[in-house]
Amino acid sequence: MLKTESPLMAKMRALQPAMKAAHEKSTREALLEHARLGFDICEGRDGKVVSVSPAEIFARYGLDEFGRPVPSATT
Fold first, then answer.
1. Would you list the DSSP string of the chain?
2. Dihedral class, residue 74 (left if φ above 0, else alpha if ψ from -120 to 50, else beta)
3. How far apart are CA 52 and CA 6, in angstroms?
4. Hey, which residues does 63 pair with through a beta bridge?
5. What is the separation of C-alpha 75 from the centre of its chain, rounded to a whole number of angstroms?
6. Alpha carbon of residue 13 to chain centroid
7. Which of 6, 15, 19, 35 is the most interior residue, by most CB within 10 Å?
8. pLDDT by residue (tens digit) across 12-71?
9. CA 2 to CA 23: how far, in whole Å?
């Protein structure tokens, strides 16, 4: 068993947060593009495949049913 980490592995480990952020951003953009085009998407929930409507996709990212930012309530 190796007791020290190779330089390549250390470099890859340092890049993990940036890779995760890039993946999350690209996933968000793809889902929102599908929703703007009016397409449902399919995803797995509890071991079943379910269809997710554009309104649900927008709500997931804090947007209204038309994909616009929801105005924040001001007091």
1. --SS--HHHHHHHHHHHHHHHHHHHHHHHHHHHHHHTT--EEEEETTEEEEE-HHHHHHHTTB-TTSPBPPPP--
2. beta
3. 43
4. 69
5. 31
6. 21
7. 35
8. 889 999 999 999 999 999 999 999 999 999 999 999 999 999 999 999 999 988 888 888
9. 30
